[in-house]
Amino acid sequence: ENVLTGKLTASERRILFLIADGLSSKEIGATLSVHYRTIENHRTNICRKLGIEGANALLRFAVQHKGELR
């Protein structure tokens, strides 16, 4: 089990995968049928769990680790 699957919930991994695809919080919210603020909260939690600061840092991380998110 890798670091990502150990720290993140299935929902958080799915959101991170969609972030890696370049989707905005609003687009991810529409895809998952939840409010974009819920996605923003998930982003905050993901960053906290992974020790990442900043939206660009999260996007960079998501793209680099996309293969591990399946």
Q: What's the helix and strand layout?
A:
Elements: H1 3-7, H2 10-20, H3 25-32, H4 36-50, H5 55-64
Helix pairs in contact: 2-4, 2-5, 3-4
Give your account of this protein's structure.
The protein is an all-alpha fold and 70 residues long. It contains five helices and no strands. The chain has helices at residues 3-7, 10-20, 25-32, 36-50, 55-64. Helix 2 (10-20) packs across helix 4 and helix 2 crosses helix 5 (55-64). It is globular, with a radius of gyration of 11 Å. The two termini are 12 Å apart.
Q: In one word, what is the shape? A: globular
Q: Give the rounded overall mean pLDDT.
A: 91
Number of helices: 5
- What percent of residues are in strands? under 5%
Helix content: over 70%
Question: How many DSSP E strands?
Answer: 0
* Secondary-structure element pattern, one letter each: HHHHH
Using brief descriptors, characterize the structure shown.
single chain, globular, 70 residues, mainly alpha
Tell me briefly what this model is.
The protein is mainly alpha-helical and 70 residues long. The chain has helices at 3-7, 10-20, 25-32, 36-50, 55-64.
